[in-house]
Design a protein that fits this description.
Elements: E1 24-29, H1 32-43, E2 47-52, E3 73-78, E4 84-89, E5 109-112, H2 115-127, E6 133-139, E7 142-148, E8 154-159, H3 170-173, H4 177-184, H5 191-197
Parallel strand pairs: 1-4, 5-8
Antiparallel strand pairs: 2-3, 3-4, 6-7, 7-8
């Protein structure tokens, strides 16, 4: 498990995570110019790669899940901590805006920011006339703001102000076994299932 720089709670047993984190989160837009300006100038995510998808992987037999159009734009932005935010440009008018509450949809995307950057992103949004909600207390010690990109995608910036520049995510949200079990019981499952699902959680904080 990658070192987050923040001490994790004592675990019931050593465990490993198969994945390393987000390589890239791929979203869609019908206006790449406006989307690029927003994430570079407003949010502060540098553009690091701009390309068109190669011929044959849109409508041809080489498609393995790409949007079904040939040679569409696919841009990548640095969202920090060695991870990327990506956008495919869908031809204008070909698809409706998605319902973020639809089953299988992306309800929102939350970014972790340091205490200093939390203030900065609010200033950037205000300077560019982008409305946002918050700061709102979400969990003990955690505050968030919410805003939308030009595509209507709901975004969140999360911060633990007391942690300053040494933000941690997993340690701050990890529950004890009993805390998680109290909710899992509402699924109507047996204790064996709950024990299996909470195996790595600490018995106490």
């Amino acid at each position: 498990m990658a070192d987050s720089g923040v001490a994790a709670p004592a675990q019931a047993a050593d465990y490993h995570v198969v994945t390393r984190g987000v390589h890239h989160l791929a979203l869609t837009t019908e206006d790449m110019k406006t989307t690029t300006e927003f994430f570079v100038n407003v949010v502060g995510m540098p553009l690091v790669h701009a390309m068109k998808v190669p011929e044959g992987v849109g409508t041809g037999p080489g498609n393995r899940g790409n949007p079904p159009w040939e040679c569409i734009r696919h841009y990548f932005f640095d969202m920090g901590n060695d991870s990327l935010l990506a956008f495919f440009e869908i031809p204008k008018g070909e698809k409706p805006r998605s319902d973020r509450d639809a089953i299988g949809g992306m309800q929102h995307c939350a970014f972790s920011v340091t205490a200093e950057r939390f203030e900065e992103i609010q200033e950037r949004l205000t300077r560019h006339g982008v409305p946002y909600d918050g700061p709102i207390d979400i969990l003990p010690g955690m505050v968030s703001i919410y805003f939308r990109d030009p595509n209507g995608i709901r975004l969140e910036a999360c911060c633990h102000p007391a942690e300053g520049e040494n933000q941690g995510v997993i340690p701050k949200v990890t529950q004890t076994r009993a805390e998680a079990a109290a909710e899992l019981e509402t699924l109507g499952v047996d204790t064996g299932w709950i024990d299996a699902m909470t195996e790595v959680l600490p018995a106490e904080r």
